[in-house]
Protein 1
Amino acid sequence: MALFSPFFKTLGRAAAVPDIGDKEVMLCFLPLFHTFGRFLEMLGSMYWYGTYVFAGNTAAETLLSLFPKVNPSVFISIPLRWMQLYENIMALVKPTDSTDEIKLKIRQVVGQRLRWGLSAA
């Protein structure tokens, strides 16, 4: 049964996120010794022919500075990093902002392509 383990993980990736494809860019925060980091991010990028961008540094400042540069379409992380993204966005938003202004500020923080994410915790 252990022989088929990679096969089942591949099927699991395909079933979990069926709409992902070769145009995806994953900004990856999780270390490769982490199950999600290795099997979903790194091997998932290879499976989907996407682009894997490893943050390289676990500091929030590094990760947050990479969003507009890398312009990811996928982000998988821990709840703390999602909260930090939210806090950075909310620091820009004013109560008088229109919906369009809020959307622009969100894109200013996360880039233009982010369309899905996953919290691993």
Protein 2
Amino acid sequence: MKNIIVSDIFGLTDELVELSARIASHPIILDPYMGMKNLFSNEQSAYQYFTENVGLEEYASFVFSNLSKLQEPVSIIAFSVGAAAVWRHSDKLKPSHIKHAHLFYGSQIRNMLNVKPNIPINIILPRLEAHFSVASMAESLNKLDNVSVEQCESLHGFMNKLSCNFNPLDCEAYVSKLRQLGN
């Protein structure tokens, strides 16, 4: 089975390539910059570049376009804005082509709770977020069909070595978990 990795605002980085290879064999990586590596100095510069040059809606359309062309079952693993991009059109994806999706800390999902996914989605939320209640978001998501929610002890970005919230212990635990699930 193919594995699709959907990047966060940092896009395609050596760190994401390394993480992806640890999760799955020969994954396909989708990123907001069409494979162009951006060497952002920090999260703020990555966020600013993403919002000024791409935006969530454009990224979501790009991700949906790529996922809707699939002809065989895949597993999706997405991070942050990539998770929100997958979620945005998860009600239009073909269940026969998506085995499951694991969406890590997609905080913008909270603004799209009207989406009713028709593919199995596991959402991994951080311990807390500065601008909203993670518990309230989890409660709303837990009411939806095809959605399971888990909350970890780490913060937003814990899977990304470039994030100030990178947590090597939790990252390794989720890499192991994803590998055991057959991604």
Protein 3
Amino acid sequence: PWVWDLHIPAARIAGIAAFEGVGKTRFAMDLARRIWFAQQWPDGQAATFPERTPTLWVCADGQQDDLADIARALGMPDEALYFN
């Protein structure tokens, strides 16, 4: 089964890999925003999570403050993100 058909599998850990500075964080935050507000996926597929579903962020480099700032700029409240 899939959370986002053919992109994010259900019941699995998924990651985004690319070189630094190419937009991984912004892309992941956009997905988190779509999940929080129950919006369509980027390819137009219907939302698959109920509105106000938070996302978990495992930060290895201590960027929690930056992520919270990005989320606020996207109109997301603090409770939309969980940090390790």
Protein 4
Amino acid sequence: MQIILRGPAAGYEAEHTARLFFPGAEKSENLTQEGDFVLAQSHQCTDLALLRLNGKLQWQTALRPQGEDAEYALCRLLYGMLCRATGITPPWGMMTGVRPVRIIHDMRAAGAGEDEIRARFLDHFGCAPEKFALALGIADLQKPVLDAADPMDCSVYAGIPFCPTRCSYCSFVSRTVGDKATRALVQPYVDKLCEELTAIRRTADRAGLHIRTFYIGGGTPTSLNAPQLEQLMSHIAKTFDLAKLDEYTVEAGRPDCTDAEKLRIIKKYGATRISINPQTFSDTVLQNIGRRHTAQDIIDCFAAARAAGHTNINMDLIAGLPKDSLEGFCRTVDRAVSLGPENITVHTLSVKRSSSLFQSDGLPQNLKDNPAGEMVDYAQNTLMNAGYAPYYLYRQKNTLENLENVGYAKPGTEGLYNVYIMEEVHTILAVGASGVTKLVNPKNGLIDRVFNYKFPYEYIDHFDVMIDRKRKVAEFYEQQF
């Protein structure tokens, strides 16, 4: 399937409206003699949507109403035709954005009434009522957190770009610690990461920022050996005032590299929240996605975390994994609930082009028969009945059935960092390879970014250049006051 865009209004939104139905489609400049394509064309006051699917042509044209946004009008025409042609009605309608809940917060801040917000979701975007209800409930739950936020608050993210194995769906810049070349990078990387953490603490102080949450993510932080993990966490404890943090999360996601000693270290040095991420409790599915552990290993790791004193644990699950079934996913959800973690995050599989899953299988051209929607619905109903409330939500490109990722939490255990980063309410200071610092202007909410080097060897080799870039953080705040 090819996507052809013509005219001034046929841009990003039109392209991604087509991708709601054909996520594997490639952009093309010209119509082909053979093969399927979607064409979106705007010309003065007339729009055209044209589709060739399985050799059959379908099209629709429309005069654009005077005063209507040209880009929206073209997308609405294209969306309607593709719904009719494919029999698919995406649950989020025409919405292509990552942060639906942010729309509610922004409209409320601008003085919009609740009826206007509802119309924006249901009429303008064509969202399903149940998806709007989900987003609205999350916005209401988040409101006290956002109301209490200070413009000079910030969070720190430290990235560990190493894993014991690479999952088939993964697109992150992460290296497996099983090979000799990568193992040789780990200790120099930890040393430089500690150095950058010292620098970022000084930068935060100079900018007048108050650090509210700290997050060590990956990759897999527990792919570090115990002495390296202790080096990192003891350095953080010496460098930052942990007593002033509202939350300190460490991803301990993989049971094939997370043992009792590492769980003890994480607890000893002040973490208040961890993630142990099954993704699935099916041994067959685990093996298929490249995990070298069993479902029982996950259960044992969870028990070891409780024994080490961890009282706020998140578990990630993924709906739509290859070789999984609706029944199998339901068993996974039930098993997670039976363990009783404080948070359960339900992701929908997103097939990234750089993942081995995409390289081997490609993207499904038609999502009509995929069970991911039923999986997500079962998870939502089961978790809410078990006392978990949805507290943050985001969406990704190339996600099965154009669905969402939702974090659920027992009351009072919501992951604050997740809310802050998704709703972009304050600056995130990112350290480590692939880190992207997001600077949120305290006056108008506009965002600027500072990029670290992407790969671990670049991060180590060009460390001084990268540290020099971070001067922009303090300069950014000096310009505001």
